[in-house]
Amino acid sequence: MKIIDLLIGIVCIGILNSVTYAQDEASSMQTTSELSDSLLDSYSIEELLQFKNYYLEQRTKLESEKKNLLENGIKESEAFVLQHTRFFE
Question: Domain residues of the chain, as ranges?
C-alpha cells in the first residue's frame, strides 16, 4: 500500500510540476487561449493546491519514515557487529 501511495505521489508531483510550468508559460504568453491543456481545464486551482498539500504531507511522512528506518538499521547493525565480533576475539 505504501508503494502505491509513493507512486501516486510521484505522478501527482509530476502533474503539479507540469501545471506550474504551464502556468508560468501562460503568464508569459500574450493570450491564454494559446494554452490548450485539457488537464488544466479538468482541475480547479483549489483542487490542485489540495493535491499539492496532500502529497507534500505524504513526502514529509515518507522522509520521516526513511530516517527512522535508517536509524533503526544503524542500531541493529551495531548490535549485530558487537554480538558477532565476540566470536573472533
Answer: 2-88
